[in-house]
């Protein structure tokens, strides 16, 4: 496997990504091709408009939020390294090679995936999903198909179910607890070809 | 003096060879079989080259980068939104019998969204497809590191042959073909007798298209020629490149339809009209759909006129799929003759990526490829059935073409190459999701807000009851 890495000399951060994420060299090369394909004006960076050209994403109800996950507030461009690190959240959890002295939790662990999903809800990144934020997500996913009252009802129920300490917001731990029966690894993983 | 002598001799030899081996057979409609021999030899060379690359890679203990023609992600059968979300909830072993919102629902949309960023069905249709075997063209190449000296020499030889011999040859042929069209169609246009005009037009057209086909070194196999389009109908085909016209016109006379251009193309268009009826629109008329439809119907109603050739996708797609057919040509109500065209990209990819290459650049690339190989299938004629509207008819024809050509049948609009998706698609997704949450019976009930709080209370009631 080590000898594959010499194929990646033209990929920025190639070696680093191989070590940090769980992607194989072949996958990184393939992702780089996709990155270059999306990067229509060949600047080496992606902008939100580049991701918006994907029709499937454009018609996804939370498409804008997903794009937002790649471009945190203040960041207008996305380089290849960040692109891959975010996608690494979606690797199946069993694809981690044991790395000696790995300090950070790998992105594709259950906690890593949960954190990614949590941030889709928690747009202001204050560590809690407020009622407003929940309403916004629901509004995105349902559009004009339900009335305001229905929306409020749904949001109310969801908060009541998950909010353990009754502070009218859902913290990360409460979020994690409410999803403990869900097979997160399966549902938030993409089966990449080897 | 000897240089000049040498030059004139070589040019004479060149032209004689050209004449004997290409133009005369084209005029007579005979095929000597040179192209087939050429292609079989090339195939053997390509396979040898790929084998050598694999051996080299093995020696250096590296992996050959194989372009995944199936994508980056494992393709699973697509689930409907309903199934997807229920599967999600099923894994959480929910006991609630009524549908309601779950925090985990977002995973479904999130995963689909990120999957589409990594690999989606649509955007890759607008760029050339990838090859398994290397065909000695750098434009379709991924494994630069593995070329040995032998392969480089072979590649260099290929470049010399393609640009030094094939390209000038083809350009000469193309020029001959076009000038012949101009001259002969104008001459035929002067003839008084109508029958004679028709007869000669056909001959002239076919001859000129044959020369053009040879100028691209195109090997075309026509299947099911008994289904060839007849007068008073419309011929529809999938669109990959402007060369499609030449490929089809090589085997029959069609009326073309399109915008009137200026310059050389405009001259060709005007010359063509003199001897057979084509439909050229001014730029301003193009927008007027009724005008277009009227001219089409008038042409079709006249049984003596040739079938019209139309490409309903409206834009060039990379020949791995067929995209949405525009319904305009299917509203006219005449017989439709579907044709499927499938190119083999191994000897030269014919797809015109109009955002990457201009027309001249594209033609240059075409003429410096090894060859253009394609198959054309004539499908049995179709008519609009009772109770079928234009869109359904268009989809039926599209499915037939996709099935015959081995292409993926997509509902997406080729116009997505340049425009964004319509909001209607997103609303569709939202509608489906709200059905899962709020239940079928509430659909269309959004206006009466008095009822809803009671319905919701009943949710709460039964939820608490459990």
TrEMBL record, chain A:
Residues 109-144, 155-185 form the EF-hand domain. GO terms for cellular component: cytoplasm; nucleus; plasma membrane. It holds the Pfam family EF-hand_7. It is found in: Cell membrane; Cytoplasm; Nucleus. The keyword Phosphoprotein applies. GO terms for biological process: protein transport. It comes from the Eukaryota. PROSITE patterns: EF_HAND_1 (PS00018), EF_HAND_2 (PS50222). SMART domains: EFh (SM00054). Its main location: membrane. One of its GO terms (molecular function) is calcium ion binding. Keywords: Calcium, Cell membrane, Cytoplasm, Lipoprotein, Membrane, Metal-binding, Myristate, Nucleus, Phosphoprotein, Protein transport, Repeat, Transport. Belongs to the calcineurin regulatory subunit family. CHP subfamily. This is Calcineurin-like EF-hand protein 2.
From TrEMBL, chain B:
Its main location: membrane. GO terms for cellular component: endoplasmic reticulum; membrane. PANTHER family: GLYCEROL-3-PHOSPHATE ACYLTRANSFERASE 4, PHOSPHOLIPID ACYLTRANSFERASE. GO terms for biological process: phospholipid biosynthetic process; triglyceride biosynthetic process. It is found in: Membrane. Keywords: Acyltransferase, Lipid biosynthesis, Lipid metabolism, Membrane, Phospholipid biosynthesis, Phospholipid metabolism, Transferase, Transmembrane, Transmembrane helix. CDD domains: LPLAT_LPCAT1-like. The keyword rRNA-binding does not apply. This is Glycerol-3-phosphate acyltransferase 4. The chain crosses the membrane at residues 6-34, 147-165, 171-191. Residues 444-459 have a biased composition (Basic and acidic residues). SMART domains: PlsC. One of its GO terms (molecular function) is glycerol-3-phosphate O-acyltransferase activity. Residues 436-466 are annotated as: Disordered. Belongs to the 1-acyl-sn-glycerol-3-phosphate acyltransferase family. Pathway: Lipid metabolism; Phospholipid metabolism. InterPro entries: LPCAT1-like (IPR045252), Plipid/glycerol_acylTrfase (IPR002123). Residues 233-344 form the Phospholipid/glycerol acyltransferase domain. SUPFAM superfamilies: Glycerol-3-phosphate (1)-acyltransferase (SSF69593).
